[in-house]
Amino acid sequence: MTITGAQQRELPYGASRLLAALGLCGSLALAAGTAAAAGAAYSVEVAEFVVSVGDGDGNERTVASNLVPYLPDRACFGWRIRLAEAPPLVRLREVLQLPKAPAFWSGEDDEYSPHIFSADRTTATTEEFKAPQDGWIENSWCIAEGDPTGPHSIEVFIEDELVRHFDFEVKKFGNP
Predict the structure, then answer these.
(1) Which residues are CB-neighbours of 31 under 8 A, at least 6 positions away?
(2) How far apart are CA 76 and CA 162, in angstroms?
(3) Exposed, middle or buried: residue 153 (CB in 10 Å: 0-12, 13-18, 19+)?
(4) pLDDT of residue 59
(5) Where does the chain show beta strands of DSSP type E?
(6) Which end of the chain is less enclosed by CB atoms within 10 A, N or C?
(7) Are 40 and 163 in contact (CB under 8 A)?
(8) 2-171 is classed CATH 3.40.50.10860
């Protein structure tokens, strides 16, 4: 599992149809982001779970979906949250839960990594400060060779309060 960076990805054969199918799941993705308990210190205006796949020209197409295609080095997933009256800086904790350990984690052997990994290597907890841009904060990961398929989840905390929980599935699709 790798955290996203500026990288070009090619769209494999049949991925255009796959993106169209993922687009149909958009309403499910928006429903998958469940609200935190009432009275949270931060008011969430919008929460989105998105999937991006390269188009072969160095561009990415992004759709709201809770299905992530298993396309190593091509498919990425992440969340975006817009806060009402966002402060200049927020303390963020993201907990990414996988169904089993991946072949490797980005930052696993880096003592300066913002990620902490569970003993069984199925959970990555990232703690960092983010400066909202027009109220938006976000984070994303990319599928890497050896990542597990199946149900995954991400919990997003701001100042130790759960603001969103996203459930999604990483799935291998056959060639058409």
Answers:
(1) none
(2) 23
(3) middle
(4) 86
(5) 2-3, 34-35, 44-54, 60-64, 67-69, 75-83, 90-97, 115-117, 123-130, 136-142, 150-158, 161-171
(6) C
(7) yes
(8) no
C-alpha span between 129 and 91 (Å, rounded): 5
Contact 158, 92 (CB under 8 A): yes
* CA dist 35 → 5, 48, 89, 115 (Å): 29, 12, 21, 25
What's the rounded Cα separation, in Å, for the pair 16 and 121? 33
Gyration radius of the chain over CA positions: 16
- The torsion of the CA quartet 21, 2, 124, 35, rounded to 10 degrees, works out to -30
Rounded Cα–Cα distance for residues 176 and 159 (Å): 46
3-class SS of residue 147: coil
Place of tokens 């993106």: 19
**Cα–Cα distance between 95 and 152 in angstroms, integer?**
11
